[in-house]
Design brief:
The protein has one helix and 44 strands.
């Protein structure tokens, strides 16, 4: 029988099949994978020239057939000709390693061969130990968390240091100390650290870049940083140093396990599908590690969740098998850590970061802060109410991801609405003119559009010492002030306003005291005039009814006060 082979230097592999349970029957050598049967026999396997050799101890019972595990090379000579050159074993490497233990060099870089799309040469899986293909940085600064190439330089972000590496070139220094850059066959040249003891900690997800600027967060030092042509700059120092110092200290960068316990019910028709029951099965998520105990003392099966049909039907990455006790508890484990997610908003040219206390985005109660930094004014311009899982910009559009969905910002005509949820805008500021004078704040005024209201107007804290040496604090505060539209009411056909009034396009309102009584006070609350204190903290926000989703502008806020007589 002739077998036509398209290319030279090809090889035919065959295996042995016995078509009977009798040990005296001859084994039939078969050619696997071909959908034909040249001898027309009734069995299912295609035949190849027969052999009477029965390889002992190598077969596995497959019902009425014996399948040999021997795969034999049928052709080993070039062109299949007589006395042609025969295929050898090739080069064999005899390299002895004193230790076969794997070594993790978290402070080192390694690069492979090149990929040439024109010649289809792909050496991306080739790491030649005969060449200098590694480059290490100082291990005292921790592990490498992020690499970012810009033009012909490579930025290396360690936990506690930022360095710059040359790509496809190296630096040569003269005896006088001068330096010059020269071409070399090295992929990675000299590594030079940037000035300043800053790093990216263990939060590479905070990295974002645009143009020549790179942004990241150094949690260990409580800073938000920018790397540009001017070097490292602490942008959290632009009015937000205290905030980031406190909030970054609360971020945990260690994975913490969270367990969900369920009871096994049955294995579904699909062997990779199980059915569980329990009061908390709705907390099971894709990617969780699963510990399934078996009956009869068999070892516990470890697998993972790859899909959810519903809250009780779980798809696993491997077959759990059938000997699972329904009375035993199955443990689902998720490893989470806090995140600092950063991204570049190309629409407004802002760097946005979101400090999130956990990785469970379905938990709306978890604390988070999303803030944005604007380069034009070198300042932090706003907090946002959305909680993203990823930030990105594409073709001058800004996108965030949440709950496996993509959301495009600035396309919705309704302002203050993210992920279909609307929130009000609010601004908190302090009135602190002449800080050493005790004052009485009488009014509040603002310039802008209709729709703003005062949520709170509170003075600084005042201490009062009791006889038992305990310390109590008291504050003067005003009642909330409604907006111009929401504060309107009609009495005896006359229109009045209980909140802001308007005159010459300026909104103003009196402050009505709403403080509780203090020891020794005779007049308090709305029987007194204004709010007393050295300074006051004021929070103003947009209302829920005036031009919903439209523009509301606020240009200036002021107050009228007099010196307190007490």
């Amino acid at each position: 029988m002739a077998i036509n082979i398209k290319y030279f230097n090809s090889f035919v592999l065959k295996k042995n099949i016995n078509n009977s349970t009798s040990s005296t029957d001859a084994y039939l050598s078969t050619f696997p994978g071909l959908p034909w049967n040249p001898q027309g026999t009734s069995h299912d396997y295609p035949l190849f020239p027969t052999s009477s050799n029965n390889p002992p101890g190598r077969s596995t019972n497959l019902g009425s057939r014996q399948l040999s595990r021997n795969w034999i090379v049928e052709e080993s000579r070039f062109r299949g000709g007589f006395n042609e050159a025969e295929t050898g074993y090739g080069v064999r490497a005899y390299l002895r390693e004193d230790s076969s233990m794997r070594e993790r060099r978290s402070n080192a870089l390694i690069y492979s061969g090149v990929f040439n799309s024109r010649t289809d040469i792909n050496e991306t899986n080739v790491f030649s130990v005969g060449e200098e293909i590694t480059k290490a940085v100082d291990p005292n600064y921790g592990s490498i968390q992020k690499l970012h190439a810009l033009d012909s330089n490579l930025a290396i972000f360690q936990e506690n240091k930022i360095s710059r590496g040359l790509i496809d070139k190296d630096a040569i220094y003269s005896a006088e100390g001068g330096g010059s850059v020269t071409s070399t066959n090295l992929v990675l040249g000299q590594v030079t650290p940037y000035v300043g003891e800053y790093g990216i900690s263990k939060n590479p997800e905070s990295f974002a870049n645009f143009g020549t600027r790179r942004y990241f967060v150094d949690k260990y030092r409580g800073k938000v940083m920018r790397l540009s042509n001017d070097g490292l700059t602490e942008i959290s120092g632009y009015g937000m140093s205290d905030f980031f110092r406190d909030k970054l200290e609360e971020i945990n960068d260690i994975f913490v396990p969270t367990n969900v316990t369920a009871t096994f019910v049955s294995v579904g028709i699909n062997p990779f599908k199980i059915v569980v029951s329990g009061s908390n099965t709705s907390s099971i998520e894709k990617g969780m590690v699963v510990q399934i105990p078996q009956t009869g003392g068999a070892p516990t099966i470890t697998t993972s969740v790859v899909g959810l049909y519903d809250t009780n039907t779980i798809y696993l990455s491997s077959n759990p098998g059938s000997p699972v006790a329904t009375s035993d508890a199955i443990i689902f484990t998720k490893y989470t850590k806090d995140k600092i997610i950063g991204g570049w908003d190309n629409y407004n040219s802002n760097y946005t970061i979101s400090l999130q206390k956990d990785e469970n985005f379905n938990n709306e109660d978890s604390s988070y802060y999303t803030a944005t930094f604007e380069e034009d004014i070198n300042g932090w311009v706003s907090f946002f109410t959305y909680k993203p899982s990823f930030l990105a910009s594409l073709k001058n559009k800004y996108y965030t991801m949440t709950s496996s969905e993509v959301y495009e910002h600035y396309s919705n005509q309704n302002r203050n609405e993210f992920y279909g949820i609307r929130s009000e805008s609010n601004i908190t500021f302090i009135f602190n003119s002449n800080p050493s004078i005790q004052k009485v704040f009488k009014t509040i005024n603002y310039e802008g559009t209709n729709g703003w209201e005062v949520d709170s107007f509170i003075s600084d804290a005042e201490g009062f010492d009791l006889q038992n040496a305990s310390y109590s604090q008291y504050n003067d505060k005003s009642k909330p002030i409604k907006s111009y539209s929401e504060g309107i009411y009609v009495e005896s056909g006359v229109e009045y306003r209980v909140g802001f009034n308007r005159k010459e396009n300026k909104y103003f309102a009196n402050l009505v005291n709403d403080s509780s009584a203090r020891p020794g006070e005779v007049l308090f609350g709305n029987k007194t005039t204004g709010i007393k204190g050295f300074f006051t903290t004021v929070k103003v926000s947009t209302d829920a009814t005036t031009n919903t989703g439209g523009i509301k502008e606020l240009f200036a806020v002021s107050t009228e006060f007099v010196v307190s007589s007490r």
